[in-house]
Structure formats: structure tokens, C-alpha cells
Amino acid sequence: MVSPFCISLALFALPGQEGTPVPASSPQPTVDQQVAAEAEAIRTAFAAWCASESKLKQQDSLGGRLVLWSDFSAGDARDAAKRTAGLLGRLDRPFGAPEDLAAARLQGVMLKDGERYHALCDAISEAAPAQREFMESSKNTTGFTLYSPPITVYYHDPAVQKEAKPDHSVAHSFVHLEMWRRFGALPLWLTEGLACAGEDGAWGEVWAYWYRDGFVFAKSHGDWRGKQTQSIVAELADLSALFSYPARPFEEQRALLAFAFATYGLDAEPENFAKFTGLLRTVYQESNPQGGRPALPPEAVAALLTQAFGDGFLQRLQTWWKKPPKWGAKRAA
Ligand SMILES: [Zn+2]
Fold first, then answer.
1. pLDDT of residue 254
2. How far is the CA of 194 from the centre of ligand 1 (A)?
3. Which segments in the chain show pLDDT lower than 50?
């Protein structure tokens, strides 16, 4: 069973292909051109839908790099946008701030009105027939993420989500979008680790677990930097368990380990972390130029890790996690 916490992912385009013009002489559009045309159609339909929904509030952050539409209270929307902006800033540290803010734009929607959510699914279906099936199934979930154009939608349905924080879910999905924008497909353990590290950094709590099947680790929301993570890191002999973690389904131990790795990379060795991520991107694209998510053998990932971080990474990770720095993030009351 797929839990309602699942945020559906549509991986139907390589990044950087949107907007490719269709040559007038070409009788049959290529797959890339069809994808680009569809992305443009979705972009237009989404803008029209947002403009037609008079109850939606728009939050622009980071000079237009981040746009959040919401039917939540203005305060909730503002807080979600502000924390997400902080989280993108944290990713800028290792990966560099984008030069062209408009080209780096990510859009998100946070909704609590079910009819409005369904109307958005229908608007996208109509604009992009290839998405029809995905949009129909998304109506029964708590949102979806499109990568081309980059749009993430969260629908808060208290009937199926007793334990969820809309702002966390939105921010978490924005990390996926941002990493996809920068790198294309990466190992899921890494992007999930980063998304959870982002939540933890922004709120001091992690809520948007992925693919949880009925079982809720309620006590651990605020304790991802705590003893359990510390002892998982301390007991590591190597990182093969992490590098072979498919992240579907969610496994608490390896999820915490992915979080620990991402947190360390972001905060302790950002330059090496960026190097590692860049190497992964290169290998991923070479091994699967058509996109998708190839599985790399753990030994291959370990070799890239050493190439990026040098020797002694595991020891440095373990030393850092013995006493991770205190952080000041707090959820607003
Ligand atoms: Zn995720």
C-alpha cells in the first residue's frame, strides 16, 4: 500500500529541456520536443489557474526564485515561504547561489480546499494529456511534484493525514525540486537525506517522511539529531548500507543515516559535499542518458566519496556526530 504521505513524483523530463523550440521544418516532433511543448502547456495552464483563483495568496521570496501560492492563512503561508527560503539558502552554501533567479524559479502550492486541489489537477490534465493518469491518481493523494516545469503541490487533507505539517511537506518537496533543478536524478537516499536535513534545519523537527505505511514514528519528529542517530553513526563500519538504501520503502535506521550524512555534508564539509554530488551527477548521466534513476553499486559510490572527500571521511563523520552543534530552529507556536 502506498501511504497518503507519498508525494507523487513525475519524472518525465530531463532537466534543461524545457523551452526547446520546435523547428518549423520538422514534420514529427521528437520526444524531447513533445516534452518541452507539454511543459510549456503546463506552465501556461498553471499560471492561468493561479490567476483565476482569487482566494489564493501569493508569496514571492528570494527575488522571485521561490513562489508559493496558498489558501492557508497569510501567516501560515508567509512562515512556510520564509522557512523554505532559508532552506534553499542552506543548499546554496555548498552548491552556489543561482545567477539567474528567473531561470531557477520554483513554484509551489499549499492547499486545504479539496475542490480547489481537484480543479488544479484537472487544469493540468487538460493542458497535458500525458499527465492525465498521473493527475487522476494524484487526486487521491496529498499532492504531487512535477519537474518540468518545476511545481510542487501539497494538499492538506486532515481526513487522511492526522499527523502532517503542511509547511514541512511543502519545504521538503522544494528540496527535491531544487536538487533536481541543479543535478537531475540523484540517488534517492541522498535527496531524502537532504530534504530531512532541510526540515530539521528550518524547524528543528522532521515530519515529511516519505512513503510511510501506517506506522508513525511520532516520538522522533524533534529528535533527528538525537541519540538514535548518533549511535547509528557511531556503530558504522562503512557506508555500504547507506549507499544501497533505495529509500523506498522508508526504513527508519537508514533514513536517519541519510539525514546524518546530508547534515554533515551541508554543515561540515560543504565544498567536498558539492564535489561528491557533482561526481554522482556525472556518473548518473553517463550511465543513463535517458534520465530515470539508475542504481549505482555501493562500491562505485564509495569510490566517488573518497574522490570527493579524501581519506578518513567516516572517521570525521563519526567524530562530528559525537557532539553535533546545537541549532536554534523552532516551530512558531
Ligand atoms: Zn522526500
1. 94
2. 9
3. 1-24, 213-216, 333
- Please choose, from the candidates 42, 47, 71, the residue with its C-alpha nearest in 3D space to the C-alpha of residue 134: 42
Measured distance CA(61)–CA(270) in Å, rounded: 24
pLDDT value at residue 161:
62
What is the CA(173)–ligand 1 centre distance, in A? 6
Task: Determine the distance separating the centroid of ligand 1 and the alpha carbon of 319, expressed in angstroms.
Answer: 27
Say how far apart CA 177 and CA 105 lie, in whole Å: 10
Residues 91-126: tens digit of each pLDDT: 999 999 999 999 999 999 999 999 999 999 999 999
Query: Which residue, chain included where needed, has cell 547507506?
Result: 242
Give me the residues near ligand 1 (ion), CB cutoff below 5 Å.
192, 195, 210
Residue ranges and CATH numbers for the domains of the chain are 8-23+33-184 (3.40.30.160), 218-322 (no CATH)
How far does the centroid of ligand 1 lie from the alpha carbon of residue 4, in Å?
13
